[in-house]
Write a structure and sequence with these properties.
Blueprint (H helix, E strand, L loop, with lengths): L2 E7 L11 H10 L5 E4 L5 E6 H13 L3 E4 L8 E2 L6 H4 L1 H11 L10 E4 L13 E6 L2 E6 L12 E7 L1 H18 L6 H8 L1 H8 L2
Parallel strand pairs: 5-6, 6-7
Antiparallel strand pairs: 1-3, 1-4, 2-3, 7-8, 8-9
Helix pairs in contact: 4-5
Amino acid sequence: MGMMKFAVTPGFMVGGTLFKAEQLAVLGSIIGEEAKIELTNFQQLYVEMDEENAEEVKRRLSETGLQIYPAGYVTKSVIGCNFCRGAEEAGLEVAKKLNEIIAGIPTPAPMKIGYAGCALGTSEPLLKDIGIVKMRDRYDIYIGGEPKSLKPALAVLLVANVEAEQMITIVRKLVTYFQANGKNKERFGKFVQRVSIENLRQAVAG
């Protein structure tokens, strides 16, 4: 009997990403004694459990409001800010729409995408593979952040002052371009350095 691993997240809400006590209670009660739960730095829980019962467990977890995603080499669910300026001003619905479109896409290496509703950047967007910062009613997109290793790097500005729909389209194009042109296990930051900012700007233009 095999094991299956999947990711669990509570999604976005004003005040941060929060699991409810009843959600964690359900999770702990139905995954089985042999299952393992791992806290990741993607604001997700990885659940590894008996493959035979996994689909039923995922269904029941979804009923509690939890969101289920693939684990492994995929785009991670969007890491949101605390939306401290309020849901509408910080763009909560835009962040949710972006997440629906890009989360769980297979990529050469895991991708972190951060969303910040203002320049405070509580989601640390400049340390993500792709960082989105809402500036008033428009968006700046940064790429190539690298928090790990002995040589951490801040993301650099790819495009500035774009509307919400255009921002989502550009992020989706970045993911697709990395999916098609990245080397196996190549981190996105290394990919950006290899391909160059200029070529990536051309790839997402139009």
